[in-house]
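#struct-pred
JK: can someone run the complex with manganese (II) ion? inputs below
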Amino acid sequence: MKASTKANNEGEVAAAFQGTVRRLGARFTGYDTIAGAGTNSCVLHYLTNDHDIEKGSVMLLDAGAEVGYYTADVTRTWPVSGKFSKEQKAIYDLVLKAQNAAIDLVKPGRKHHEGYDAAMRVLSDGLVDLGILTGDKESVYKSAAYSRFSMHGISHWIGLDVHDTGNYQQEPGKRGGSRVLEAGMALTVEPGIYIPKDARDIDAKWRGIGVRIEDVLLVTPDGNRNLSDKLPRTVESLEAVLNQRD
Ligand code: GLY
Ligand code: MN
Ligand code: MN
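RT: done, structure tokens with the ligand placed:
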């Protein structure tokens, strides 16, 4: 994260991550690192990581070390200036609220899909509160208008592979009926909002901001354990790390 505050190009941030995990003992990453700044933070599975970083932009890093054949899959988004702008903070806090709502539903007995529904409700209502979507909250949610800015699923199994094998439906081979979570399962929770630079009908102050927050959760008998919770995840803790002296 700190490397991004001095970097000119996205590739330097991807390289800093890869260098760091090698130094800490991992030989591989579990998938190709995604390091996108500014409007590239809105590109899902952005892989070129080769654009210059504009001052004041957000940086989205989706990356995971592989150790002992198991991979992580973690995303953090932060401002390269070291301080979130008002709009960056508003989007960030909304995605964080959606992620927390989904994480609260990671527990035995809950269905895998419930977290998605809870997160989309938070994002949809929040986009209306910010004036990015207009209309009454119920109809905006029902029409799935939020999907223009939040267009991917928010959870997959993880383990030996980043998108690990396993059914998402309760009865293999039969469609419908989301899988019920059990202790010992490992999954990601990764909502995001993406407002690319070319979203010309949206107020310019929001454009070029993409935020995803992704953690790896282990379902435990009582609820869940966030396996990536040592990483800063709030505006305050991210800003603190970015501004730490070497
Ligand atoms: N890194 C790909 C994903 O988050 O699923
Ligand atoms: Mn993922
Ligand atoms: Mn990821």
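RT: quick notes.
Residues 92 and 211 are 6 Å apart (CA to CA).
The longest strand covers residues 58-63.
JK: thanks, will look after standup
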